[in-house]
Amino acid sequence: MHGPALAGWLLMVLCGATGAYCLLRTRSGTEEERRTARAEGLMGLGMAAMAVPAAVFTLPGWTWAVYAVLFGGAALRVLMTAPYRAHHLHHLVGSLAMVYMAVAMAPGAGQGVRGGHMDHGSAASAGGIPLLTGVLLTYYALYVLRSAGRLIPVTAAAGPGSAGGAAGPGREARPELALACRLTMGIGMFAMLLTL
What we know:
This protein is an all-alpha fold. The protein has one domain (5-116, 126-152, 172-194). It has six helices and two strands; from the N terminus they run ααααββαα. It has a two-stranded antiparallel ribbon with strand order 1-2. Helix 1 runs antiparallel to helix 2 and helix 5 (130-151) packs antiparallel against helix 6 (175-194). The protein is globular and about 45 Å long. Residues 111-125 and 161-172 have low confidence and may be disordered.
């Protein structure tokens, strides 16, 4: 990732922890929930690996091709999975965005490249296609706002079957944690797109 080293490290830790938690979610739930958790774990760990600050550790040039193939395969898997739901389409957008970033961050992808990293001093050094980057930034900004809004608790009137002291669901059955992971990865994707 091209940007401040501290931001890269923080993003790497955040995405890595989120990806690891998503992989832990694969131990329970329905087959669909486990498949979603695996896809989100792959996305989180892939984002963590991509967010390693370029000033600290230079990834080999072939790494970007591996990212593009890996997330291109994930996008194909989403396309072949039916039925299409909003969350499947979000995974498709995320996988294609990762392919796009891998191609844009690859050595030689921009005009202002020096030694495998973007030359931040030249005006022509912006990676990727500005219009596509802008569309993805808008998508992720709206996704983050929508996800954050869904995490805000809504006070509901106590129904006839509600017990005040009933224990809450177990860790495996907490949908707000899965939503928080998606929110975190959306923020991470937005931050990574800003560095292009």
